[in-house]
């Protein structure tokens, strides 16, 4: 008897995370995970913690195209596996998508129209979706949107100080990393219900980084705005930047918007400040002053954003760290704590060093946690919800392909 599985693809700007889920019971239960590192030579890493395997994938000019996706699925799926659905993370849903959706021809056209708003991420997700449809023309595919979690925010949080007609046309603050924040909000409701219903600031710190202020598990405000460039400094992105700087750069250093865009996405942030690397671990191991300055700026801006979000949420009862940096780098968390001691944040030194779930000391006015995020679980759960909403029986094939 074949095993019914769901597959999730989480396409980022530099990697592709894959989740494999057993859905035989009607719920999505994790079977395995894998990650594809992108570049001239794509590389797949998969397996259990005890036995990690790595293989080179066929290089392809179309990035995450048919050859790469076919090689990944051939390696991950066994002969007794039957793909029931494939769910995808799509970064930008614009004003169109306020929740997950079934991927039909019309939905795909709408997602493509939003590509200029997420030029690094949207094309990656679309390439994977197209590749899956080419390989499995009748499979059910769904999309989960990073922006959807933040559609609960009020106009004060989403509005930019520009003419009203521009706001109404979609030039506004959206926010991202919504799948991660949704997972954290849901986890807190189970793990610590007294905190899940309180005022929480979550810091998703990774290659891309942002913060979100939540009350009762609902997004109130977030650091990223119209694009994934906004907010705190990131590995190679600057975070909040005076628009006057952009005007100056267009008049002096850059001849067109495309070159400026590439500069902002790939040459700024921690890499730009340090001149060494955008990787916080590499900077932590480097003792040159520029490396320390980049890390100090990173922690300072994160702490400042916590303070700003506290205005939106009416205070902070708990601070959650997630993402690769947030989960694994106690030095960064300690650096943030130093700037937030005035708010009463105090970390237990031993707990912080061991990346424990509960970080805060007994006398801390703010509870602090490390919670590993799981965006793929959210994608799988949302895919099953979409299938149920549309009345598609498990094992039934999609009625509309590309």
Structural class: alpha/beta
Specify the biggest β-sheet. 8 strands, mixed
User: Strands of the biggest beta sheet: in what spatial order?
Assistant: 5-4-3-2-1-6-8-7
Task: Indicate the CATH architecture of the largest domain.
Answer: 2-Layer Sandwich
Termini gap: 30 Å
Query: Total helix count?
Result: 16
> Can you write the helix and strand succession as a string?
EEEEEHEEHHEHHHHEEEHHHHHEHHHEH
User: Mean pLDDT across all residues, rounded?
Assistant: 93
How many strand segments?
Answer: 13
**Uncertain stretches:** 397-402
Basic shape: globular
Number of domains: 2
Radius of gyration: 21 Å
Instruction: Classify the beta-strand content into a percent band.
Output: 15-25%
Keywords: ATP-binding, Cytoplasm, Kinase, Magnesium, Metal-binding, Nucleotide-binding, Transferase
Cofactor: Mg(2+); Mn(2+)
Subcellular location: Cytoplasm
EC number: 2.7.2.1
Description:
- With 402 residues, the protein is an alpha/beta fold.
- It has two domains: 158 residues, 2-Layer Sandwich (Nucleotidyltransferase, domain 5); 179 residues, ATPase, nucleotide binding domain (Nucleotidyltransferase, domain 5, 2-Layer Sandwich).
- It is 38% helix and 20% strand.
- It has 16 helices and 13 strands.
- The strands form two sheets. An eight-stranded mixed beta sheet has the order 5-4-3-2-1-6-8-7, with helices on both faces.
- A hairpin with a 3-residue loop joins strand 1 and strand 2.
- The longest helix is centred in the last third of the chain and has 25 residues.
- 43% of the residues are buried.
């Amino acid at each position: 008897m074949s095993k019914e599985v769901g597959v999730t693809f989480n396409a980022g700007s530099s990697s592709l995370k894959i989740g494999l889920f057993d859905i035989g019971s009607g719920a999505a239960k994790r079977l395995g995970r894998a990650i594809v590192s992108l570049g001239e030579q794509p590389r797949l890493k998969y397996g259990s913690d005890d036995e990690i395997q790595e293989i080179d994938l066929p290089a392809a000019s179309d990035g995450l195209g048919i050859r790469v996706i076919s090689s990944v699925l051939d390696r991950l799926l066994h002969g007794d596996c039957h793909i029931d659905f494939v769910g995808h993370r799509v970064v930008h849903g614009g004003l169109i998508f306020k929740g997950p959706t079934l991927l039909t021809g019309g939905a795909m056209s709408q997602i493509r129209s939003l590509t200029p708003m997420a030029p690094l991420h949207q094309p990656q997700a679309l390439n994977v979706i197209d590749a899956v449809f080419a390989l499995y023309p009748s499979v059910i595919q769904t999309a989960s949107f990073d922006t959807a979690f933040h559609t609960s925010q009020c106009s004060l949080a989403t509005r930019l100080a520009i003419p009203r007609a521009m706001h109404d046309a979609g030039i506004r603050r959206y926010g991202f990393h919504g799948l991660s924040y949704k997972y954290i909000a849901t986890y807190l409701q189970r793990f610590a219900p007294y905190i899940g219903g309180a005022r929480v600031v979550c810091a998703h710190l990774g290659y891309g980084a942002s913060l979100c202020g939540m009350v009762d598990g609902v997004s109130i405000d977030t650091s990223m705005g119209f694009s994934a460039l906004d907010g705190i400094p990131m590995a190679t992105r600057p975070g909040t930047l005076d628009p006057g700087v952009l005007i100056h750069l267009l008049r002096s250093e850059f001849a067109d918007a495309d070159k400026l865009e590439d500069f902002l996405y790939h040459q700024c942030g921690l890499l730009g400040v340090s001149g060494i690397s955008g990787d916080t671990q590499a900077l932590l191991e480097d003792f040159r002053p520029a490396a320390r300055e980049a890390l100090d700026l990173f922690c300072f801006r994160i702490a400042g954003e916590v303070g700003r979000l506290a205005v939106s949420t009416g205070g902070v009862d708990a601070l959650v760290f997630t993402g690769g940096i947030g989960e694994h780098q106690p030095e960064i968390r300690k650096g943030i704590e130093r700037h937030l001691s005035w708010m009463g944040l105090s970390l237990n030194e031993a707990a912080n060093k061991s990346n424990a779930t509960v970080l805060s000391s007994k006398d801390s006015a703010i509870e602090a946690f490390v919670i590993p995020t799981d965006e793929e679980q959210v994608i799988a759960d949302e895919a099953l919800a979409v299938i149920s909403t549309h009345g598609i029986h498990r094992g039934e094939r999609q009625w509309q392909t590309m």
